[in-house]
């Protein structure tokens, strides 16, 4: 299902948009502040983001700049009143893909969403994340927040496998089999311990990477 994050503080507009797009088969999550949108984005990348230009706790333009630091190909549409048209050009320079002027017809919004997704595809599948950690699968790049982290091949594969199985406890034996034995490189149990220690150090001891004592490890969103 296509998941849309809608950053909008006008309850009437957001409810109308959510109901209409829901009827078209889209899942819409509404965020009334920039802060709440950032919190949600930090844990999951949606298919597309709708951003109101003016928010009570910050500018939509600044939110899009923040998004582009982590998800350069995530489709973004600005929703703005006509008086902000001069600023929209600046907004495009900072990463927005399209804009719609308020008030707008819901069918017009839908047509813009469909057109943009035809151009971009579902970019959300390109990203995996948990807490402040994220992987760009296309570029094989790893980030902690906006900081890019350099990992060895085995460290990258270890993090990737845990993120692909987020929420599940993966045994040490399973990790050894999947990451090393599958490549024909048999290693002992200590190799996993050393690799995990180095991975945690490089990622600045992330709270989302849990140790399940005497069993293995689990990626889990922080509370």
Automatic annotation (TrEMBL):
- Which GO terms fall under molecular function for this chain's record? phosphorelay response regulator activity; transcription cis-regulatory region binding
Q: Where is the Response regulatory domain?
A: 3-117
**What InterPro entries does this protein map onto?**
CheY-like_superfamily, OmpR/PhoB-type_DNA-bd, Sig_transdc_resp-reg_receiver, WalR-like, WH-like_DNA-bd_sf
What residues are annotated to bind DNA?
A: 125-221
**Residue list for modification 4-aspartylphosphate:** 52
What region holds the OmpR/PhoB-type domain? Answer: 125-221
| The UniProt record lists the keyword Ribonucleoprotein | no
Q: Which CDD domains match?
A: trans_reg_C
What does the entry list under GO cellular component? cytosol; protein-DNA complex
The processes (GO biological process) annotated in the record are: regulation of DNA-templated transcription
What Gene3D superfamilies does the entry give? Answer: 3.40.50.2300, 6.10.250.690, Winged helix-like DNA-binding domain superfamily/Winged helix DNA-binding domain
Alphabetically sorted, this entry's keywords are: DNA-binding, Phosphoprotein, Transcription, Transcription regulation, Two-component regulatory system
Cited SMART domains: REC, Trans_reg_C
Function, in words: May play the central regulatory role in sporulation. It may be an element of the effector pathway responsible for the activation of sporulation genes in response to nutritional stress. Spo0A may act in concert with spo0H (a sigma factor) to control the expression of some genes that are critical to the sporulation process.
The name this protein goes by in its record = Stage 0 sporulation protein A homolog
Native organism:
Parablautia intestinalis
């Amino acid at each position: 299902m296509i998941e849309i994050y809608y950053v909008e503080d006008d309850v009437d507009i957001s409810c109308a948009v959510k109901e209409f797009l829901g009827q078209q088969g889209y899942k819409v999550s509404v965020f009334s502040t920039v802060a709440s949108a950032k919190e949600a984005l930090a844990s999951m990348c949606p298919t597309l983001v709708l951003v109101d230009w003016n928010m009570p706790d910050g500018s939509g333009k600044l939110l899009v700049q923040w998004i582009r630091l982590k998800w350069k190909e995530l489709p973004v549409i600005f929703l703005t009143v006509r008086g902000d048209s001069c600023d929209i050009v600046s907004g495009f320079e900072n990463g927005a893909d399209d804009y719609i002027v308020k008030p707008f017809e819901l069918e017009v919004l839908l047509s813009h969403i469909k057109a943009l997704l035809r151009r971009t595809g579902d970019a959300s599948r390109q990203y995996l994340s948990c807490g402040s950690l994220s992987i760009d699968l296309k570029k094989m790049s790893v980030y902690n927040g906006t900081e890019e982290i350099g990992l060895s091949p085995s460290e990258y594969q270890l993090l990737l496998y845990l993120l692909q199985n987020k929420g599940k406890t993966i045994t040490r034996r399973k990790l050894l089999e999947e990451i090393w034995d599958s490549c024909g490189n048999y290693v002992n149990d200590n190799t996993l311990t050393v690799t995990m220690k180095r991975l945690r150090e490089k990622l600045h001891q992330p709270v989302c990477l849990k140790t399940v004592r005497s069993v293995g490890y689990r990626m889990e969103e922080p509370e």
